[in-house]
Design a protein that fits this description.
135 residues, mainly alpha
Length: 135
C-alpha cells in the first residue's frame, strides 16, 4: 500500500514539474492584469457594473422563473445563446446609467426595476402557467 502511494506521489510530482512553464506564464498574465487595474481602478468597477452584474442579475431572475437554482445553472449551459441575448438586453438597459453622473445609483435603480419584473413573473408563474411577457 505504501509503495502505491509513493508511486502516485512521484507521478504527481513529475506532473507538477511539467506544468512549471504554464504556471509561470499564468503568473505573468496575472501580474500584467493587476498592474493594469492598479493604474486605472475605474476599469475594474466598470467591468463589474456593466458586465458581471448583468450576468448575476439575469441568473437570479432566471432561477426565480425556473423556481430552482439547479435548473438555472442547467439553463445557462443548455441555452447559452438565449442567456447571452438576455444578458445583452440587461446591459443595454443598464447603459442608460452612463448618461448620468451618479452611475451606481442608476444601475441600482434599473436593477431594482428588473428584479421587480422578475418577482412579478415569479408570482404570476406560481398562480398560473403563463409567464409575465408582452404579446
Amino acid at each position: 500500500m505504501k509503495e502505491k502511494m509513493k508511486n502516485i506521489l512521484s507521478v504527481l510530482s513529475k506532473l507538477w514539474e511539467k506544468t512549471a512553464p504554464v504556471r509561470s506564464g499564468l503568473n505573468k498574465c496575472g501580474e500584467k492584469v493587476s498592474t493594469i487595474y492598479k493604474k486605472n481602478p475605474i476599469r475594474s468597477s466598470f467591468i463589474t457594473l456593466y458586465i458581471i452584474w448583468p450576468i448575476i442579475l439575469f441568473f437570479i431572475i432566471q432561477c426565480m422563473e425556473l423556481k430552482s437554482f439547479t435548473k438555472g445553472v442547467r439553463f445557462l449551459f443548455t441555452h447559452p445563446l438565449i442567456f447571452l441575448a438576455n444578458v445583452l438586453i440587461i446591459i443595454t438597459t443598464l447603459s442608460i446609467s452612463l448618461l448620468f453622473k451618479k452611475r451606481i445609483f442608476f444601475v441600482s435603480l434599473i436593477s431594482v426595476i428588473w428584479m421587480i419584473f422578475g418577482i412579478s413573473n415569479l408570482v404570476l408563474l406560481l398562480n398560473r402557467v403563463t409567464p409575465f411577457t408582452a404579446n
